[in-house]
Protein backbone atom coordinates (compact mmCIF):
# COMPACT_ATOMS: atom_id res chain seq x y z
CA UNK A 1 0.00 0.00 0.00
CA UNK A 2 1.16 3.50 -0.69
CA UNK A 3 2.32 5.76 2.10
CA UNK A 4 0.75 8.94 3.38
CA UNK A 5 -0.96 11.22 0.89
CA UNK A 6 -0.97 14.99 1.15
CA UNK A 7 -3.17 17.58 -0.52
CA UNK A 8 -3.14 21.34 -0.02
CA UNK A 9 -5.33 24.28 -0.89
CA UNK A 10 -4.52 26.85 -3.53
CA UNK A 11 -4.22 30.55 -2.76
CA UNK A 12 -6.44 33.05 -4.55
CA UNK A 13 -5.20 34.60 -7.78
CA UNK A 14 -5.14 34.00 -11.50
CA UNK A 15 -4.56 30.51 -12.87
CA UNK A 16 -1.05 31.47 -14.04
CA UNK A 17 -0.22 33.00 -10.66
CA UNK A 18 -1.62 29.95 -8.86
CA UNK A 19 0.41 27.58 -10.99
CA UNK A 20 3.72 29.28 -10.13
CA UNK A 21 2.73 29.66 -6.48
CA UNK A 22 1.58 26.03 -6.31
CA UNK A 23 4.88 24.76 -7.72
CA UNK A 24 6.84 26.90 -5.28
CA UNK A 25 4.69 25.76 -2.34
CA UNK A 26 4.90 22.13 -3.43
CA UNK A 27 8.70 22.36 -3.73
CA UNK A 28 8.94 24.01 -0.30
CA UNK A 29 6.71 21.39 1.32
CA UNK A 30 8.66 18.58 -0.35
CA UNK A 31 11.93 20.06 0.94
CA UNK A 32 10.49 20.30 4.46
CA UNK A 33 9.29 16.69 4.28
CA UNK A 34 12.67 15.47 3.01
CA UNK A 35 14.49 17.29 5.81
CA UNK A 36 12.07 15.97 8.40
CA UNK A 37 12.22 12.36 7.28
CA UNK A 38 16.02 12.47 7.14
CA UNK A 39 15.95 12.71 10.93
CA UNK A 40 13.77 9.60 11.31
CA UNK A 41 15.51 7.32 8.79
CA UNK A 42 17.79 5.73 11.42
CA UNK A 43 14.73 4.70 13.43
CA UNK A 44 12.98 3.04 10.49
CA UNK A 45 15.07 -0.12 10.61
CA UNK A 46 13.94 -2.33 7.71
CA UNK A 47 10.77 -0.28 7.15
CA UNK A 48 10.38 2.10 4.23
CA UNK A 49 8.63 5.47 4.15
CA UNK A 50 7.19 6.44 0.74
CA UNK A 51 5.48 9.84 0.67
CA UNK A 52 3.39 11.22 -2.19
CA UNK A 53 2.54 14.89 -2.45
CA UNK A 54 -0.28 16.04 -4.72
CA UNK A 55 -0.60 19.40 -6.37
CA UNK A 56 -2.62 22.00 -4.48
CA UNK A 57 -6.36 22.11 -5.06
CA UNK A 58 -9.40 24.02 -3.93
CA UNK A 59 -11.67 22.34 -1.42
CA UNK A 60 -14.48 20.21 -2.81
CA UNK A 61 -14.56 17.54 -5.50
CA UNK A 62 -10.96 18.23 -6.52
CA UNK A 63 -9.79 16.77 -3.20
CA UNK A 64 -10.57 13.24 -4.43
CA UNK A 65 -8.38 13.74 -7.51
CA UNK A 66 -5.62 15.24 -5.33
CA UNK A 67 -5.77 12.22 -3.03
CA UNK A 68 -5.47 9.85 -6.01
CA UNK A 69 -2.57 11.92 -7.34
CA UNK A 70 -0.82 11.76 -3.95
CA UNK A 71 -1.43 8.00 -3.73
CA UNK A 72 0.10 7.53 -7.14
CA UNK A 73 3.08 9.71 -6.21
CA UNK A 74 3.49 7.60 -3.04
CA UNK A 75 3.46 4.47 -5.19
CA UNK A 76 6.25 5.94 -7.30
CA UNK A 77 8.11 6.84 -4.10
CA UNK A 78 7.78 3.23 -2.94
CA UNK A 79 9.41 2.07 -6.17
CA UNK A 80 12.51 4.16 -5.50
CA UNK A 81 15.58 2.71 -3.83
CA UNK A 82 15.71 5.20 -0.97
CA UNK A 83 14.46 4.06 2.44
CA UNK A 84 12.40 7.26 2.64
CA UNK A 85 11.39 9.06 -0.54
CA UNK A 86 9.17 12.03 -1.34
CA UNK A 87 7.63 12.27 -4.82
CA UNK A 88 5.66 15.36 -5.82
CA UNK A 89 2.97 15.66 -8.46
CA UNK A 90 5.43 17.62 -10.61
CA UNK A 91 7.55 14.46 -10.89
CA UNK A 92 4.75 12.34 -12.32
CA UNK A 93 4.78 11.86 -16.07
CA UNK A 94 1.58 12.95 -17.75
CA UNK A 95 0.50 9.44 -18.70
CA UNK A 96 1.28 8.22 -15.18
CA UNK A 97 -0.91 10.95 -13.73
CA UNK A 98 -3.70 9.96 -16.07
CA UNK A 99 -3.33 6.27 -15.23
CA UNK A 100 -3.27 7.08 -11.51
CA UNK A 101 -6.72 8.61 -11.77
CA UNK A 102 -8.25 5.45 -13.24
CA UNK A 103 -9.79 3.01 -10.72
CA UNK A 104 -7.71 -0.12 -9.98
CA UNK A 105 -10.27 -2.53 -11.39
CA UNK A 106 -10.41 -0.63 -14.69
CA UNK A 107 -6.60 -0.60 -14.94
CA UNK A 108 -6.44 -4.36 -14.25
CA UNK A 109 -9.17 -5.08 -16.80
CA UNK A 110 -7.42 -2.97 -19.46
CA UNK A 111 -4.06 -4.63 -18.82
CA UNK A 112 -5.63 -8.10 -18.98
CA UNK A 113 -7.55 -7.28 -22.17
CA UNK A 114 -4.50 -5.86 -23.96
CA UNK A 115 -1.67 -8.01 -22.56
CA UNK A 116 -3.48 -11.09 -21.23
CA UNK A 117 -2.62 -13.37 -24.17
CA UNK A 118 1.04 -12.28 -24.06
CA UNK A 119 1.28 -12.83 -20.31
CA UNK A 120 -0.33 -16.27 -20.65
CA UNK A 121 2.02 -17.22 -23.49
CA UNK A 122 5.05 -16.05 -21.49
CA UNK A 123 3.90 -18.06 -18.50
CA UNK A 124 3.37 -21.22 -20.54
CA UNK A 125 6.48 -20.96 -22.74
CA UNK A 126 8.94 -18.75 -20.81
CA UNK A 127 9.23 -16.77 -24.06
CA UNK A 128 10.13 -13.36 -22.57
CA UNK A 129 7.70 -11.59 -24.88
CA UNK A 130 6.84 -8.95 -22.26
CA UNK A 131 10.50 -8.16 -21.64
CA UNK A 132 11.12 -7.91 -25.38
CA UNK A 133 8.05 -5.71 -25.91
CA UNK A 134 9.13 -3.43 -23.05
CA UNK A 135 12.64 -3.04 -24.46
CA UNK A 136 11.28 -2.54 -27.98
CA UNK A 137 8.97 0.27 -26.87
CA UNK A 138 11.58 1.79 -24.54
CA UNK A 139 13.90 2.09 -27.55
CA UNK A 140 11.33 3.69 -29.87
CA UNK A 141 10.79 0.54 -31.92
CA UNK A 142 14.45 0.18 -32.88
CA UNK A 143 15.04 -3.47 -33.76
CA UNK A 144 18.82 -3.20 -33.50
CA UNK A 145 18.88 -1.23 -30.24
CA UNK A 146 16.38 -3.63 -28.65
CA UNK A 147 18.44 -6.62 -29.80
CA UNK A 148 21.61 -5.02 -28.45
CA UNK A 149 20.10 -4.26 -25.03
CA UNK A 150 18.61 -7.76 -24.70
CA UNK A 151 21.73 -9.45 -26.12
CA UNK A 152 19.68 -11.12 -28.85
CA UNK A 153 19.89 -11.44 -32.61
CA UNK A 154 17.69 -8.93 -34.44
CA UNK A 155 15.73 -11.80 -36.00
CA UNK A 156 14.86 -13.08 -32.51
CA UNK A 157 13.48 -9.66 -31.63
CA UNK A 158 11.51 -9.58 -34.89
CA UNK A 159 10.08 -13.05 -34.18
CA UNK A 160 9.07 -12.11 -30.62
CA UNK A 161 7.45 -8.82 -31.67
CA UNK A 162 5.58 -10.64 -34.45
CA UNK A 163 4.33 -13.10 -31.82
CA UNK A 164 3.15 -10.18 -29.62
CA UNK A 165 1.32 -8.73 -32.61
CA UNK A 166 -0.27 -12.10 -33.37
CA UNK A 167 -1.38 -12.65 -29.76
CA UNK A 168 -2.74 -9.12 -29.25
CA UNK A 169 -4.11 -8.41 -32.72
CA UNK A 170 -2.14 -5.15 -32.69
CA UNK A 171 0.34 -3.77 -35.19
CA UNK A 172 3.40 -2.21 -33.55
CA UNK A 173 3.99 -0.18 -36.70
CA UNK A 174 0.91 1.88 -35.73
CA UNK A 175 1.29 4.57 -33.07
CA UNK A 176 -2.10 3.97 -31.44
CA UNK A 177 -1.35 0.24 -31.03
CA UNK A 178 2.07 1.06 -29.57
CA UNK A 179 0.43 3.46 -27.10
CA UNK A 180 -2.11 0.81 -26.07
CA UNK A 181 0.63 -1.70 -25.36
CA UNK A 182 2.86 0.89 -23.70
CA UNK A 183 0.07 1.90 -21.31
CA UNK A 184 -0.84 -1.71 -20.57
CA UNK A 185 2.79 -2.40 -19.65
CA UNK A 186 2.82 0.59 -17.30
CA UNK A 187 -0.20 -0.79 -15.46
CA UNK A 188 1.75 -3.69 -13.95
Number of helices: 8
Oligomer: single chain
Task: Supply the number of structural domains.
Answer: 2
Label the overall shape: elongated
The profile of the biggest β sheet is: 3 strands, parallel
The low-confidence parts are: 1-18
Q: Taking strands numbered 1, 2, ... along the chain, how are they ordered across the largest sheet?
A: 1-2-3
What is the H-and-E element order? EHEHEHHHHHH
Number of strands: 3
Rg over CA atoms, rounded to whole Å, is 20 Å
Name the beta content range.
5-15%
Distance between the termini: 15 Å
Class by SSE composition:
mainly alpha
Please estimate the helix content: 55-70%
Query: For the residues shown, what is the average pLDDT?
Result: 82
Question: Can you give a write-up of this model?
Answer:
The chain has helices spanning 15-44, 62-78, 94-100, 104-125, 129-138, 143-150, 154-168, 175-186, and strands spanning 5-8, 49-56, 84-88. The chain folds into two domains: 5-100, no CATH class; 104-186, Arc Repressor Mutant, subunit A (Orthogonal Bundle). The chain is 64% helix and 9% strand. A three-stranded parallel sheet has the order 1-2-3. It is mainly α.
Amino acid sequence: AAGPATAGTAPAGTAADRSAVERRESDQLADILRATIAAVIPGLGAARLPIGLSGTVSAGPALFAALEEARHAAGLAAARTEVAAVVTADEIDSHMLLLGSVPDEVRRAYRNRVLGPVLAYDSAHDAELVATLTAFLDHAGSWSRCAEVLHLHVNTVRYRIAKVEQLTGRNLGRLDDRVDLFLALRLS
